[in-house]
Amino acid sequence: MASGQNKPNRLTVILPEDAIAFVEQLPIEKFHGIGEVTATKMHSLAIHTGADLKQRSSLTLPEASLSELTHHFGKAGQYYHKIARAEDGRPVEANRVRKSIGAENSFANDLSDIGQMLQELDQIAQIVEQRLEQHETRGRTLTLKVKFSDYHQITRSKTMFTPISELSTIFEIAKTLFLSIELENRSVRLLGISLSNLDNAKQTQAIQLPLFQNGNIIF
Length: 219
Description:
single chain, DNA polymerase, domain 1, 36% helix
């Protein structure tokens, strides 16, 4: 939530003693895990900020307030009850394993020419290959994403027996998937390629720093 405060290039630091005040002033739509539908429902309950959420949760005894939130929002009510008080006991995972690598391009002008679409697909495949190389990994499942001018979106996937990372293979599979789609004279707004089922054996592992060096403790 802090990273979204001063986009795109500013830094927001929230100290522990400022966490509650920060949460109280935050619009309910800015909370992680609260989407458009949930925010609309909260608005209907006169909940517009973190302070509203906390106050509504404190109208009665804690047990009753928690049951009130779970009544309106199910199991998520327990989460909302905690975040209204800046409480989150989940451990920080600084080295999560990446599940997919991909790239996509949304076009300023919708594409209607097949040749141009394939040309754009080739450029996207090049970016995917570069990102795979940067992360020293390969993938077995290639997924093609196509969004049309009417914002209707479809995906097509193919899983290989062995992982791939070569540009020629990525493009040929993506091209085959693309040509299997019935365009029906529709123009294309977005194209994307991603690889999942990654071979993570070579991904960067967390490094344990040494406590001693040359017999001395490192401070």
